[in-house]
Design a protein that fits this description.
It is built from seven helices and eleven strands. The chain has one domain. The strands form four sheets. Strands 3-6-7-8 form a four-stranded mixed sheet, sandwiched between helices. The chain has a three-stranded antiparallel sheet with strand order 9-10-11. Strands 1-2 form a two-stranded antiparallel sheet. With 219 residues, it is an alpha+beta fold. The structure holds zinc ion. The site of zinc ion has 8 residues, from loops.
Length: 219
């Protein structure tokens, strides 16, 4: 695609990455935050090229989608509906297992979904764990002021690490560690208690899996 530098107006060609796979050479750039950033050949200004990103894993059927721009809430909901329907139709047409589909609207959320999938963690249970942390599980955080993001750079077998972000500044405040045993207890609860599992499926019926849906239940 042709880009125009907003600083010096130079036009130049750049092919942004739009599809990522588990063995994609561009994954490291995604995790570093430099994917689809390019320096203007004339003035060296860094440009971020907004494109829709799709991550696809065929082996463990999974797809994550991030549109190029944030959307108004009603368009987010409509896009989620379309994505869920098309995933179901495509799977039926091709006779394949329907992938787990996730729709997110920010780059950190996109990275988090991919990182959780790669670690084999159920993101619905992770969102539920965040909800519990906000509801008395951890001191000094509240969901109006803070966001919790899975810290994929710091994973160990015995714990899950979250970064606490200040929603206003968008900056990390500190980290929060959850013992893996505690998380596995939660996983077991959802596996063995059908009421709990139904509740989880009721909270997250489609491709949008975000703690905000637990905080402000949608009808
Ligand atoms: Zn330039």
């Amino acid at each position: 695609m042709e880009l125009a530098c907003p600083h010096c107006k130079k036009h130049f060609d750049f092919e942004p990455v739009t599809i990522l796979t588990p063995d994609s050479e561009h994954l490291a750039e995604l995790f570093r935050g430099s994917l689809n950033s390019v320096a203007c050949p004339q003035c060296q200004a860094m440009l971020n090229v907004p494109v829709q990103l799709i991550y696809r894993d065929h082996q463990r059927p999974f797809m994550a989608v991030q549109p190029p721009h944030p959307l108004p809430p009603e368009e987010e909901a409509a896009m989620a509906l379309r994505l869920d329907e098309s995933a179901t139709e495509a799977a039926l047409d091709e006779g394949l297992e329907r992938p787990t589909v996730r729709l997110v609207f920010t780059r950190p959320d996109f990275i988090e979904k991919i990182a959780l999938h790669r670690q084999g963690l159920d993101d619905r249970i992770v969102e539920y764990a965040k909800f519990q942390l906000f509801n008395g599980g951890a001191e000094g955080i509240n969901p109006q002021r803070h966001r919790l993001l899975f810290d994929f750079t710091q994973q160990a077998e015995d714990r899950i690490v979250f970064l606490i972000y200040d929603r206003k500044t968008g900056r990390p405040v500190r980290i929060l560690q959850v013992p893996m045993a505690e998380f596995q207890n939660l996983v077991k609860e959802f596996q063995t208690n059908s009421e709990a599992r139904q509740e989880l499926e009721h909270c997250f019926p489609g491709c949008r899996v975000d703690i905000d849906m637990l905080l402000e239940p949608h009808s």
